[in-house]
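Figure-free illustration: sequence to structure, shown twice.
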Amino acid sequence: MKILVANLGSTSFKYRLFDLADPSEPVLARGAVERIGAASSPCTVHLPSGPQIREAAVPDHGVAVRMCLEQLTDPATGVLKSADEVAAIGFKAVHAKHLSGVVRVNSEVLEAMEAYADVCPAHNPPYTKAMRLLADKLPEIPLIAAFETDFHQSIPEPAKRYAVPEEWATKFGIKRHGFHGASHRFIATRMAQILGRSDARIISCHLGGSSSLCAISNGKSQGCSLGMSPQSGLPHNNRVGDLDVFALPVVLRETGQSLEQVLHTLANKSGLEGICGLNDLRDIEAAAGQGNAQARLALDLFITDIRRYLGSFLVTLGGADAIVFTGGIGENSKVIREAVCRDLGWFGIELDPAKNLTAKAESQLSADGSRVQIWTVPTNEELIVARQTRDLLAAAV
């Protein structure tokens, strides 16, 4: 079964094509169309025969997918005999009102996602717009939404709740839903294989442009640093993270801005960028090393909040068998890993400095005497979505 997994932006379409009939679950091709809607858009596909790049006018996501399918079915270089081989398009969907799990996209699903457009302003609007286009222009291909909140449905109710009126929680869905579910699910699955046990206590640290920690026990989520929206939890590259809501009246009063303007700032110009003007951690680390005080503050705040949630989840799980760093920052920043694990020997967490400096891809970083294993593991969210899409199709037969 061949599954196309889509990653959508407002003007981009990125994908990976998996062959799940093969036990090794290979990626047959990956590609992207950028600058959708511009006069000319580059369409790149990486095939076994090598990369191919086309330039063409791509007015919308439906045309983008058609272009990708044309490249994938090219008689000379493609990996598909026809587009009919694509069993479905799977989406790493984020959030929807009163809806989670893995579902076939229909009008009810789209309406539930659109109802939370203001909760997930960077994600839901481009996804629902593109999904509607694809459903109209590619009716022969099923569209499947695998929501990031699905993995966190196992979180105990007390850990999901905010201290708000009961109606807010039960009727309006004001809860800690958690996100990055595909990434944390992959880490849970992969670490069970590495450790040779399914009952391990794991703290998954997905650190990147958007970051979260997840407490995992017996392969299931027990807590996530992300709450009601992707703007919560740790500070992100340009999203605020946790904030006392009673700060809002002060900002509204002092700036004279509307609530919509302030929310836009919190969702787009806050986080690490709001503190130091930079939103790429590599640039922030470099600036901090050159004596930039605001960059140093952003770095220290990020590390402090990671450690805050790490400590909380050690209590949640009653200790840990493994701490895993994943995501662009988690996999690549030896500075962040060292700072997060510093002086935690009394928790049984001891990082090996030499291993940390040379770590690449999947590596164990813990010192020989560390009770808790420390790992870097590259995540594979797309593979999780492909599997979930396959399983839903199989269940429907």
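We now fold a second protein in the same way, so the two outputs can be compared directly.
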Amino acid sequence: MTGYATVQSSVAQSAPETEPRQDASSRLGVEIRSVNSRFLDLAFRLPDELRQTEPALRELLTGKLKRGKVEVRVSLESASASSLRPPSSATLQRLGSLEDSIKSWLPQAAALSVADILRIATNEDRKPHDHSEELLKLAKNALKELMSAREREGARLAHMLLDRTAQLRALAALAVPMVPKLVEQQQARFLERWKEAMALGGSTALPEMAQDRALTEATAFAIRIDVAEEITRLSSHLDEIDRLLSSGGELGKRLDFLIQELHREANTLGSKSASLELTRISVDMKVLIEQVREQVQNIE
């Protein structure tokens, strides 16, 4: 199912050792996107300093999610430029000596820019801070929000599926009385043909043999077009779908199987069709079943 969640938080970042203890603030963010997929496909976009947390994040997500193409983006950046501090004299002297040494061997080497010096000095003076614990806490909150969003979408999908199953029941109810009418019409047609074949004209009495033959043909026709078994199985599958949607839980794979069975019964109903109306009902059923199939693939 689709879903989106984003959570951000301020986290402490160690100050340089050369300065009094004062934690700078950084912004840690977790963004989770989920789109429809029959299987679980996880993708992570993590900063290099947080790459080691991927196994823990993967375990966290697989414990709650079973379906969907899920992308996790983690950002870690300073809250403001005020966290930059001027490099110490010793650091600047060391960088100058290193630059002179490099240029003595590589005269074509580019000179250090102000941005390069600030970046090198900041990374040198500041101890790396492990944000793994803060990241996992933030990821749990983001996952909770994602699950809430997916639950809301799941409720909407369940409502739509129940509406489609109701429409399928209505179509099945229309098909049930058609078969006896078709058999009755076919029996009258057989009897009429026998009348014509035996040149009975307007006589209302039929020879016993002719009447028996007509009844036998009508019976064979009734057996051939009887869809009561298909309608019964279709209704049973619809009952099970309604029950699963009401009970909740992990439904995706079970619903996939039931949709396959619904499609099979609709196909059989169409192949046994002896009238245009019954064929139309079969086609309408297949359209609804395909709509249900598309949405069932989104349900976890």
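Summary for the second example: The CA atoms of residues 194 and 210 lie 6 Å apart.
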